[in-house]
Amino acid sequence: MRTTVAIIGAGPAGLLLARLLHGADVDCVVLERRDRAYVERRQRAGILEQATADVLRAAGAGARMDREGLRHDGIELRYDGRRHRVDFPSLTGGRSVTVYAQTEVCKDLIALRLRDGQPLLFEAEALAVEGAATDRPRVRFRHQGREDVLECAYVAGCDGFWGVARAAVPPGLSRTYERAYPYAWLGVLADAPPSHDELVYARHDRGFALLSLRSPTVSRLYLQVPEGTDPASWSDAEIWDELDRRLETGDGWRLKRGPITARSVTPMRSFVHEPMRHGRLLLAGDAAHIVPPTGAKGLNLAVADVVTLARALTAAVHRGDSALLDAYSATCLDRVWQAERFAHTMTTLLHRHPEATPFDGRLQRARLDRIATCRAARAELADAYTGAPLDGVP
Ligand code: RFL
Ligand code: PHB
Known about the structure:
Shape: globular
Number of helices: 11
CATH class of the domain at 5-71 and 99-177 and 269-354: Alpha Beta
Radius of gyration: 21 Å
Number of strands: 20
Largest sheet: 8 strands, mixed
Oligomer: single chain
Bound molecules: 8-demethyl-8-dimethylamino-flavin-adenine-dinucleotide, P-hydroxybenzoic acid
């Protein structure tokens, strides 16, 4: 098998890269380890930055998002029973975010790729990237029980944090930066209408809670829990009672309950691998960097990476111009570290560290008070949350 760009992974990074390359007349093959149903059901992100939504539209993948996605003009911060709204458009010169689940973004991109008759192989597991530092890299993979080789001009490692692409960078050339947080998120999906029309990020002495949504009838809720928590160790009633405690306000606001249909526990980690390129191997999305989900940045960073990568690969393939590829890692890492900074800030602002002292708790409140009372502090949050525009995206 031969193609121009071998893409490992059909998460948002790999699927969008394939779409952008197809639009630019660059051949690619996508290899995905899991089956289609699994990829389309995996519950994850829910918030699209304005630039992410614009990229999906420009790629012809925004029609259902524009019909079914919900524009959100702010979030609520909740602590000590009080509620503070952060209004995005007035603080950012008009930016907002879109609530549209990652599952739906992936479904839309998969449908487009299959409709176009372009190669996307499910249950095709990449085993190794070989020859990344040569002109003829290869991906060894297993599909339908058989081992095969995909020869290509470039490999895009879009295979997430647990993928194999990153391992093809020789250890002597890799630098990694990491922080594991001593807590996790218990996330649930519930057949209950959203209890508030915007997301609520709550700081509480018992731990963080987040109220999000998937549609007018489905809520997505998260609770900070100790790392290593077994999701089955919480009964539905315990989850609702704990959400009630952490989200309680003094003004009669009520949490709407409903049947819980899915639950999982997500560890919290910050991780960056530098550089994001080794020869003809380019890493994108979670394969290169992880953020804790508190800032809603992971999916958006994956999109920013592949927009930069698609442009660079197009210039290299069609015009023999590798300047953008040479700049790829540094260009992406600027944005990545800003997202790491913001995700870390939001995480430490809102979570209870198991070893927190009373001083730490006071400091969290002071930081939240600053956001509630100072426009410049609110503007900084709104600016980072809604995300910087992407170069060259209309
Ligand atoms: P993905 O989505 O992990 O996709 C990688 C794909 O590669 C496949 N794969 C392989 N395929 C072939 N061969 C191999 N050897 C392979 N190894 C792996 C995998 O099966 C998979 O299909 O990475 P990608 O595309 O970089 O996308 C990144 C995002 O998924 C991730 O950053 C976000 O979900 C993070 N995230 C959030 N991001 C946001 O922007 N906004 C949010 O609101 C948000 N909330 C979240 C989140 C992540 C969460 N979890 C579960 C980690 C909330 C949660 C709870
Ligand atoms: C979600 O809806 O899944 C979600 C929203 C905001 C976050 C993280 C997750 O910060």
